Amino acid sequence: MLNGQARNKFLIECGQAMAGRPFFLEAQDGGPRSRRVKSIVEARQTLKPSYAHDLLEAKQQLQGKMQVLEETAAEAIEAADVCRKDASNVRQSTEALITVGEVREADNLALVRETSDLKQELRKARHVAHELEIAVRCAICCSKRADTVLMPCKHVCCCQTCWARVSEENNMLAPCPICRVPVQGWIQMRV
Ligand SMILES: [Zn+2]
Ligand SMILES: [Zn+2]
Fold this sequence. Notes:
This protein has three helices and three strands. It is mainly alpha-helical.
């Protein structure tokens, strides 16, 4: 350890030798720290060119990577735009298909209702045809079509064969089977 006088002398010498240097003030704290500061400064001066070179290389590499990343990001944005447009087209197509499907479903329902109505009408028409078929059959033989108009009542209820036989059996005085009015003559219809 330096005594007070020697210490002051040392500080003055240091101040003269190191005035203006960055670690000048550090020398006031004592020997070990000033030596450490000095060694750090020297190391920095030695390593600075090498670090600068490494930093420049790293910077260039980073710039290159940044450029690649920016290009990749631009491509990704472009691809995302394309995907967005595709998705929009798909959505529009889907909506159009749903509309077409709804229209077809409505058409199908209408067709089902129409078919049901037509089947019902067909059943009615067959029933009417059956009734007519029965109505125009001969009331005597029930097999041939009634084609004989009885006069004067004009009822049509039997075939010519049956009426000829009935009329002959009754000496041409048979009454009409429907209204019982005496038949004076008969006409065969041409159907
Ligand atoms: Zn008959
Ligand atoms: Zn009659």
